Amino acid sequence: MPTARTRAWLVRIGRVLLVAVLSWLALRLIRGIDWDKVLSAITDLAWWQAVVLVLAGVLRLAVLSGVLFVLIETLRYPQALANESAGAAVSTIAPDPSDVVVRLAMFRSWRIETTSATSGLTLRILGFYVVRLAVPVLGFVLFWIAREYSSGFSWLALVGGTGALLLLGGLVLALRAAKSAAFVGSTLGKVVGGLRPAGGGPEIWSGRVVEFQSHSADRVRRHGATAALVLLLYVLVETGVLITCLSFAGVRIDPGIVLVLGCSFLVVYPMNGLPMMGLGVLDAAYIAFVTDYSDLDPTDLLGGMIVWRLTVQVLPVLLGLTTLAWWRRTTGASAESA
């Protein structure tokens, strides 16, 4: 069995190889790009198209907010929307775990019980990773049924599906292991007690972790399926937003092309979990897949991807910072002093 240090090095090497391969793809892509045409695709957007994209960006956040609304009891939907908007902005412009700190501060200011808030946020993050890793399987199967078998899609579906099953299995085991939760809590209590006696002893920490585990298990049992469906709906909405952005940038749209655009995005969707939503890496892989199965111009595709980036990254930052400023003026000061 490899040691923890060996596994860590293997993960690092794997990341370096992945970035190297995708950077090579990106360089191949850039050489054939007409940048004047890309700029024209962005600047030639009509005012009504800009309005549609703003509404699409808001819809994307609105759907994702439903996950927190489902998983955190006593949280109202407008609060879930504000929390998701602020979290998206902070995670884009600040390092982890800044967004979690801000999210929890917002929950405290709204008098959301700490265990409920922490449990719901943790389940939302883990659930999103499960769905993110699983959707390549959906893209591969849809493409195989509607058009043809793709070996490139199959490998990504296999890797993503395996990762989703492992993560889901680990989550299920964790939610069922009350004894393990008590042991982890007791161990944390001993460590914290040695560093900061006022932090509580093993019994207190054991109770806290068991309460967190049992609360999370109850929420998954009662609302896990609904949260998973909302997350899947979110991915489909994001796929629709991308296709809309591509069409506004001049990409030809017909049923066959929509199949290629949609399935290719689902297959590369796990790269969305990389820093900056896989900026550059996801784009290069996506355009490479689309051009393999269609005659679309990479220049048009890149223009559409940039419009999509503006819609799903720049717009949420503006909305989130506005939401954060509103929260600080209304309830943020009391939360920070609490």
TrEMBL record:
Signal peptide: none annotated. The chain crosses the membrane at residues 48-72, 126-146, 152-175, 224-243, 306-327. Its main location: membrane. GO terms for cellular component: plasma membrane. It holds the Pfam family LPG_synthase_TM. The keyword DNA damage does not apply. The keyword Membrane applies. It is a multi-pass membrane protein. It is found in: Cell membrane. Keywords: Cell membrane, Membrane, Transmembrane, Transmembrane helix. This is Lysylphosphatidylglycerol synthase-like protein.
